[in-house]
Specification:
202 residues; 5-stranded parallel sheet; alpha/beta; single chain
Length: 202
């Protein structure tokens, strides 16, 4: 298997990287989907209770609970993939999750850090406007602090590869294609140019 995980702060471009992978026919597993599914199972609105349920899962099942619940989804996606068992996993948060995936997939797992400066991420999130907090700089700083406190900063530092997402959307997409070893012809996401390089799938 060739499992590629992504890690990055809000607005860094994880969602856009996932879009590029999907356009190339590479399956994407979003770790946040595990939490959203559990919210629905408990009769809760994922938009309101995402963080609460993520914390509850870690308390009930261990710090690697979300990674553990994601593993079957990754294996299923790899089994169904036409891309040499390649799967992109969107949205690692902690070193515990990283270790769980490295234990499961060994050398077949690669962690990619996606980086962009605060100001660039803030601008992209403001353009995206998914909710009011996307345009609130203080809220973004607080969100960054929460993510880093959960271990995201250390996870970024332990990545095997890095993509800088400061330049244009086209340049970022090309960097992702190069990492995924796909041609532009395999990934027609450029046909729908959008200001979504800061997309965050989780």
């Amino acid at each position: 298997m060739n499992i590629i995980g992504t890690v990055g702060l809000p607005g860094s471009g994880k969602g856009e990287a996932a879009d590029v992978a999907e356009a190339a026919g590479i399956p994407v597993v979003v770790m946040g989907d595990v939490i959203r599914a559990e919210c629905r199972r408990r009769g809760l609105d994922p938009a309101e209770h995402h963080g609460q349920i993520a914390g509850a899962l870690r308390e009930e099942e261990g710090d690697d609970a979300i990674a553990a619940r994601t593993l079957p989804r990754i294996r299923e996606a790899a089994a169904e993939s036409d891309r040499d068992d390649t799967v992109l996993v969107d949205g690692l948060r902690s070193t515990v999750e990283l270790e769980r995936f490295r234990e499961a997939f060994g050398d077949g797992f690669t962690l990619v850090a996606i980086r962009a400066p605060f100001e660039v991420r803030a601008e992209r999130l403001g353009e995206r406007g998914r909710d009011d907090s996307d345009s609130d700089l203080e809220a973004l700083r607080e969100r960054d602090d929460r993510e880093i406190a959960l271990g995201l900063g250390e996870t970024l530092e332990r990545a095997d590869a890095e993509i800088d997402n400061t330049d244009s959307l086209a340049a970022f997409r090309e960097a992702v294609r190069e990492l995924l070893d796909v041609d532009a012809g395999d990934a027609d996401v450029d046909a729908a140019e959008t200001p979504n390089a800061g997309g965050d799938g989780a």
